[in-house]
Amino acid sequence: MDVPVLLIEFEGVLADTAAMRAAALVEAFGADDLSLTPALSALAPGLTTEQAVHRIRQAAGWPEDGTAAEICRLRAERAFAARAGKGLSLQPAVRDAIERLSSFARLAIVTRASRREVEFALGLSGLDAMFRPVIALEDASSPKPSAAPHLAALDRMAQLFPGQHICALAIEDSVVGVRAARAAGIPSVAIGLLPAHEAIEADAWFPSLSDLTPTRARERSPSARARGTDDERTRHHAGARVAGAA
Predict the structure, then answer these.
(1) What is the DSSP string of the chain?
(2) Interval 44-66: pLDDT, tens
(3) 224-232: long-range contacts (C-beta < 8 A, 24 or more apart)?
(4) Which neighbouring-strand residues pair with 167?
């Protein structure tokens, strides 16, 4: 039996965290009198805070300094927590979208955010019961773009549905997540404001989660693709038999 599963990134897809993350990085680097240009800030989307700090420092040509990078990470995470504590908004129409998609598939979260951040936001929104499992930053051996977070979610789903075929589709807000899904062998849908050259790496793109209807998700699931391949083979073989008979 096929079990359709949507593996959803929390940041960017469910929660509107981009501006808070960017402001937190600016504040953290600013404490060391390091200024983030728009080009440097553009390197951070899709990355964990630790990854973003290291990537920005490297791109800016700042000296390698593990202690300075760790202090910057801690400052950025504290700055983000302070902002999120005052209110973390869900993306528009997310609640309705989640309710519609849950009629078609099991919903899980696979995210670069910490478990504390995810549970805090979902608890306030009342959506915490909609997602099982939640694979947060600390639940995988390495973060996206590694395949580890998605593979951890598949392992957990296999435990929930032993002996059944898990048909997973990843819903991501960045090319980092899209590449992680691909590394895990999972098709993906990109959501939100991605550059065209990054969005094209996904199997589909939609402006928001509310644009991903159950029908559209079903059409992009592995089981639908397999059926399409089988149908194509059937048509091919049938055509060959007709041609042979002629």
Answers:
(1) -EEEEEEE-TBTTTB--HHHHHHHHHHHHHTTT-PPPHHHHTT-TTS-HHHHHHHHHHHHTPPP-HHHHHHHHHHHHHHHHHHHTT--PBPTTHHHHHHHHTTTSEEEEE-SS-HHHHHHHHHHHT-GGG-S-EE-GGGSSS-TTSSHHHHHHHHHHHHHSTTSEEEEEEEESSHHHHHHHHHTT--EEEESS--HHHHTTSSEEESSGGG--HHHHHHTSHHHHHHHHHHHHHHHHHHHHHHHH-
(2) 999 999 999 999 999 999 988 99
(3) 225/187
(4) 4
Say how far apart CA 171 and CA 189 lie, in whole Å.
5
User: What is the identity of the amino acid at 169?
Assistant: L
pLDDT in tens, 180-220: 999 999 999 999 999 999 999 999 999 999 999 999 999 98
In angstroms, rounded to a whole number, what is the distance separating the alpha carbons of residues 55 and 58? 5
Q: How many CB atoms lie within 10 A of CB 131?
A: 21
Find which of 18-27, 88-97, 218-227 is predicted with most confidence, using mean pLDDT: 18-27
Which token pair is 190?
A: 């990109």
| Cβ-based burial of 23 (10 A; exposed 0-12, middle 13-18, buried ≥19) | middle
Question: What tokens were used for 112?
Answer: 């670069």
Question: Are the C-beta atoms of 212 and 103 separated by less than 8 Å?
Answer: no
Contact 177, 153 (CB under 8 A): no
Does residue 114 contact residue 17 with C-beta atoms inside 8 Å? no
Contact predicate 234/211, CB 8 Å: no
